[in-house]
Amino acid sequence: TRSWWEILWLTAWAELATVARTLRKRLVGKVCAVKVLGARGMMQSRFVGRAPTRVATRSPAARGGRRSRPRSAPEAQELVTSRSRELGESGVKVAPIGIGAWSWGDALYWSSDGWSDEKEGLARGALQAYLELCPEDPWIDTAEVYGGIGGESERIIGRFLRDSVSTDAGGKPTSTSRPKVATKFAALPWRYSKGSVVDACRSSLARCKTESCDLYQLHWPGLWFNDQYVEGLEEVVKQGLAKSVGVSNYSDKRLQEAHSKLKARGVPLASNQVHYNLLYRLPETNGVLEKCQELGVTLVAYSPLAQGVLSGKYDEKNLPTGPRARIYNESFMRKARPLIELMREIGENHGGKSNAQVALNWLLCNPLVTVIPGAKNRQQVEDLMGAIGWELEEGEVIELRKAALAVPPVQGFPAEDL
Prior knowledge:
alpha/beta; about 10% strand
């Protein structure tokens, strides 16, 4: 169960989000709906900022039987879905697919039967498989609140990183295969200074058993002290604790403010990590995706598979377990079925790609976006990494978005509305 202060904190966010949504509806009305990237059947483009293009969607009958041409290795490397992304203008490069460690160590949301040594062993296998399949710029994303307030996800990663170091007969390190590490600061109400950010970063690094991280992020905007938090990001860079800094769950206005403050201090804002997938496209309509492109900030998409729903393994009779079943319930899965079936069909037309691979490729067709799907075992990683090396056609990208419009969106993180 959650502690009393966690419940109080989340309740406060939810109440403020309700007020914000009400005010936004009164002031803006339906203007945001007009700004969607291609509204219902006539899409402007795959990406914000490109010239409008009319693309006729093909019927399943017209598309059936068509197979995409396999690409050679050099061609695959040139695909936008396969190229590493620089995080903003930070100079730090990451693979298009990272591994999200939200579920590692979790005993509440993802693991109804608790965490165990067996599950940790499977997670270790997932990381090993990822490093084998992603030789260039592999990275893993965690946070100090993943696996509980004590940072259990970070501790697990620390154990994995510690064991990844090879030594010679004399016990000296010889070689290592380590992913780049991204973690996040929790804007808890009693943290009120830039020193809070620095102290939290140092604690995260200790748990991860590394001297510095490649990306340090503000997990969500605080109710207060946001200027101090941004100053803290500058400080962790100056002290060499992080190679780049970013934010998460930031609206377009907050993103602009953080970018401007850091730029004035000579520190680039590298990324904004937000909820984004085929079933949750709020960044396309609330100005976040557009603002990221304007500022040159990389958008890191979390929950890119809608917590497993887009993988195709769930339906009305086989719902996700735990709290996810209340979000993706029987009614939701029934409405999502046409989209899931379309994804399966498009995947078949690309040589038997899975639904998860289609969902990730859809996001990666935008060079501004990188994704961090969760992975609990080696088999899931092998499936995820099949999302690169090929690319959806533009008509398919648009057809998938159009099919997704028929599915009602779920509630996102409340901080997005503030």
